[in-house]
Amino acid sequence: MSGPAIHVERLVFAYPDGRQALYGVDFTVQRGERVALLGPNGAGKTTLVLHLNGILGSVAGGTGSGRIQIGGTGLHREHLPEVRRKVGLVFQDPDDQLFMPTVRDDVAFGPANLGLRGSELDDRVHEALVQVGMQDHADLAPHHLSFGQRRRVAVATVLAMRPEVLVLDEPSSNLDPAARRELSDILSGLDVTLLMITHDLPYALQLCERSLLMDDGRIVADGRTRDLLGDADLMAAHRLELPYGFDPLSVPGPERKG
Amino acid sequence: MSGDGLLVTVDSRVHRLPAHVKIVALFVLVLAVVSTPAAAFWAFGLYAVMLVAAVVTARLPVLLVARRLTVETPFIVFALLLPFVATGPRVDVLGLELSQSGVLGAWNVLAKGTLGVVAAIVLSATTGPRDLLAGLERLRLPATLVAILSFMIRYLSVVSDDLHRMRIARESRGYAGGRAGHLKAVAGGVGALFVRSFERGERVHLAMRSRGYTGRMPLLSTRGATSSQWLEGLAISLAAVAVALAVRVVGL
Fold first, then answer.
1. Hey, what domains does chain A have and what are their CATH numbers?
2. Is ipTM beyond 0.95?
3. Interface residue B53 vs chain A (CB under 8 A)
4. Which of B130, B154, B159, B217 to mutate to test the interface with A (most CBs of A within 10 A)?
5. Where are the transmembrane segments (chain B) (predicted)?
6. How far apart are the C-alpha atoms of B131 and B139, rounded to whole Å?
7. Domain extents for chain B?
């Protein structure tokens, strides 16, 4: 049980319709790191994260080559249940992630698949809901929640599986400013390795010390978030733009807290 | 479409009964009612009294039950047609020549239909959708069917929101096609909606597999029913069975 949290080597993948999405991706994320995955639409970010728990790629019976290691163990068909527990994926649309009749049933879905039953299962569900501050809404149906609450429950559904790596696909999209801040409070308080796809560059700077920049199915830059965001030429070359008036050199980031 | 389904949120003895008890009770009651010969008028009177008692115990507003009874309308229309189209010996009712077997047939459809619908209304108004699912699961309905029902309940509101947004988008761009034009637009919209729902289904499946789904849904947690709850829930149904048996066997 040693080795980096995520290690990806020469990952290549094309969709069944022939569209090539990944052209050789290499990167390593150490345990406890918080990394943002930046890049324009269509760069292959979501495709990449769907590989990390074996949803896409050769282990899932698809095409593609390359090597992925999660926590030091290679991704193989026989390890898939274990890998899916270790890598928790939070999808972009909470309506895709919350499919059970109530919040409680939904959060219980993952741990129940891991074999938990009875009071152990109830404890696990409660613990995950407390982590995102939604313990008072356990008996509600997902569509009775606000969008921000649904996003938090979606995070809880994954936390209930006690993942080692939390992977989020655009966690701040469609959230109002308060919900966005509440989510960042929750995320920064979690003790897991974090990989976060985002177009919200201030969010990346606030939460992640390191960033990977992806374009055209390749990692084109890997470094401190502040340095990447401050490199105007690099940003312009890959269709990334900072919000109006935002100066990445003038705001505090996660590195100053530690 | 609210996700609470038809649940009326008051607290009553009927609301507190476990869902699977209520489902069995409904099933038994409907069987008893259906197996009663149409000519045994007094039996239907008794059934009606029992169901009114159930509605009162469940503390359901009478107006609401009456409004929900309107789902029965197509059957009523059919039943009212029967005396005119059926053949056989004729009787004279208020100056109209009606078929005797037709009148009895109409009564049969009306009485049994109404009793069944009222019983179903009591079940649906006292049981939330999630409890209904858990109850069906406890009654060993195949897990796949339970899962399909559960997804339907969960995504009905999502899909109808989609439909609503598509209609607003259409009207915002000045669409005014009249009734027929609207139908045409909705038909086109349904195609798009199907594709969207299909894609959502794929994403949901990915999300399920990400959380360790291997083809078996975990059971919804429910508590079992005590024998006194069974007795309480089945009281009306058992009485109805007794009445039906009395009609059949004793020939009262």
1. 6-92+164-257 (3.40.50.300)
2. no
3. no
4. B154
5. 21-38, 44-62, 69-86, 106-127, 139-157, 230-250
6. 12
7. 13-135+224-250, 149-210
